[in-house]
Amino acid sequence: MANRAPDWFAQAERDMEQAASSRDEGRHEWACFAAHQAAEKAAKALHLALGQEAWGHAVARLLRELPLSAPAELVEMGKVLDNHYVPTRYANGHPEGAPFEHYGPLQSEETIRYAGEIIGFVRTEMARAR
């Protein structure tokens, strides 16, 4: 079977483009969700590049379960991103208000930066795995 790691990584990069576009359009909840998705897909790409499958949506866990040591700071960034998986999309993710009312530029800038750090790490490790 073909190694799909490059496909997952390409989609991670595309999701980062979506995160930036959503941020620029003021759709900060979608920017946060897209940044989470980018980091998740990048982590899954690295798992595949290293010869193992990965399941689930928790970025921090995906990074911790890599067969190499991910920097602790990246795992912490993954934890922040994981907090944006559900509440960015569902009204019952917050005590009141629609999701978009709970997100702004501070959150979208942070999540885009964190996802970018994770993608950079994955890019480097995938290049080493070749």
What does this structure look like?
The longest helix is centred in the last third of the chain and has 25 residues, at about 105-130. This protein is elongated. The protein has five helices and no strands. It starts with a helix and ends with a helix. With about 130 residues, it is an all-alpha fold. The protein has a domain at about 35-105 and about 115-130: Four Helix Bundle (Hemerythrin (Met), subunit A), CATH 1.20.120.330. Helix 2 (about 30-50) packs parallel to helix 5 (about 105-130) and helix 4 packs across helix 5. The chain has helices at about 5-25, 30-50, 60-65, 70-80, 105-130.
What is the rounded Rg? 14 Å
Poorly predicted runs are: none
Characterize the biggest β-sheet: none
Helix content: 55-70%
Mean pLDDT across all amino acids: 97
| Global geometry | elongated
What is the terminal separation in angstroms? 17 Å
Number of strands: 0
List the secondary-structure elements in sequence, H or E: HHHHH
Number of H- or I-type helical stretches? 5
The CATH homologous superfamily of the domain at 34-107 and 115-129 is named Nucleotidyltransferases  domain 2
In CATH terms, what is the architecture of the domain at 34-107 and 115-129? Answer: Up-down Bundle
Strand content: under 5%
Q: Please write the CATH class name of the domain at 34-107 and 115-129.
A: Mainly Alpha
CATH topology of the domain at 34-107 and 115-129: Four Helix Bundle (Hemerythrin (Met), subunit A)
Structural class: mainly alpha
Features:
65% helix, elongated, mainly alpha, 5 helices, Four Helix Bundle (Hemerythrin (Met), subunit A), 130 residues
